[in-house]
Amino acid sequence: MSLSQAQKKAFRSIGHHLNPVVTVSENGVSENLLAELGRALRDHELIKVKLALPERDDRTAMLEALINASEAEPVQTIGKVALLYRHNPQANPKLSNITRFENHHGRR
């Protein structure tokens, strides 16, 4: 599933105010990191991930690995922070960033 430009624009607007909930360091991808990433995407649907790696090529490769492992959609990447989305049809409305901020900045 690919996100439309309108969806990406709306998600970027919501994601602007979010803080990173997962940080990836030079230690790489571990079972615990993937479990936390999966839990965060299941609960919040839209999350920020901080890639604390000094080299741009390393960050790009790490982001691709995370996207493939989590089946998430990349919304935006700026510097060391990526915004990821994965739809959850049974998301808790009190936890989902999409549901909580659906009227954010005039969205309907």
Automatic annotation (TrEMBL):
<feature type="domain" description="CRM">
    <location>
        <begin position="1"/>
        <end position="97"/>
    </location>
</feature>
<protein>
    <submittedName>
        <fullName>Ribosome assembly RNA-binding protein YhbY</fullName>
    </submittedName>
</protein>
<dbReference type="Pfam" id="PF01985">
    <property type="entry name" value="CRS1_YhbY"/>
</dbReference>
<dbReference type="InterPro" id="IPR017924">
    <property type="entry name" value="RNA-binding_YhbY"/>
</dbReference>
<dbReference type="InterPro" id="IPR051925">
    <property type="entry name" value="RNA-binding_domain"/>
</dbReference>
<keyword id="KW-0694">RNA-binding</keyword>
<dbReference type="InterPro" id="IPR035920">
    <property type="entry name" value="YhbY-like_sf"/>
</dbReference>
<dbReference type="InterPro" id="IPR001890">
    <property type="entry name" value="RNA-binding_CRM"/>
</dbReference>
